[in-house]
Write a structure and sequence with these properties.
The chain is α+β, with helices and mostly antiparallel strands and 172 residues long. The chain folds into two domains: 79 residues, Roll (PH-domain like); 68 residues. The strands form two sheets. A five-stranded antiparallel β-sheet has the order 4-5-6-7-8. The protein has a three-stranded antiparallel β-sheet with strand order 1-2-3. Helix 2 runs antiparallel to helix 3, helix 2 runs parallel beside helix 4 and helix 3 runs antiparallel to helix 4. The radius of gyration is 18 Å and the shape is elongated.
């Protein structure tokens, strides 16, 4: 589908889409900002940076989603899971199995898995699987930051996890 370039049509589509998914997205037109309901994180919706909006359907489920195309080439996806974006691997290098888009629900699930492994199983040595989870979290946070999310809270939690992994790797 061809992206919609007309600003008023873009806004109308985004407003309608968010209104139809109040459990995933809330639109604050006064800011403007979109709230990712699952994470409670606001994403500043800078219309000056949006060059197109495309409405597509998930190939597996048929569920509709929107892609907001930005002037820097990045894309932000609005879906039933909330706000999704591309993970960035500049800090981690290539990651096997990395999905093309991620969201803050992915952060919460992966953080929980890594925390469980580190806290609930202190007798187990840190292995490649733990590092892969940590690198996934880094790529997700880097992607979120690149599209304009405030990720200070996630960075603090990620730093604590990285410190625990490093301490466990060092045998401490």
């Amino acid at each position: 589908m061809e992206p919609i370039a007309d600003r008023s049509s873009q806004r109308a589509l985004v407003e309608r889409y968010a209104r139809q998914r109040p459990l995933a997205l809330l639109l604050d037109t006064s800011q403007p900002a979109l709230l990712d309901v699952a994470s409670g994180k606001a994403w500043p919706l800078d219309w000056a940076r949006v060059v197109g909006v495309a409405e597509l359907a998930n190939a597996d489920t048929g569920a509709p989603y929107l892609v907001l195309l930005r002037d820097d080439g990045r894309q932000v996806v609005l879906a039933d899971v909330g706000i999704a974006f591309e993970p960035l691997t500049a800090s981690t290098g290539p990651l096997a199995g990395l999905p093309p888009v991620v969201c803050f629900r992915d952060f919460a699930a992966t953080e929980a898995r890594l925390t469980h492994a580190l806290v609930d199983h202190p007798e187990q040595p840190v292995d490649r699987g733990h590092l892969d989870l940590l690198f996934f979290l880094i790529a997700l946070v880097d992607g979120a930051r690149a599209v304009g999310f405030d990720v200070a809270r996630e960075e603090r939690r990620l730093s604590a996890l990285a410190n625990e992994v490093e301490a466990r790797r060092a045998g401490g």
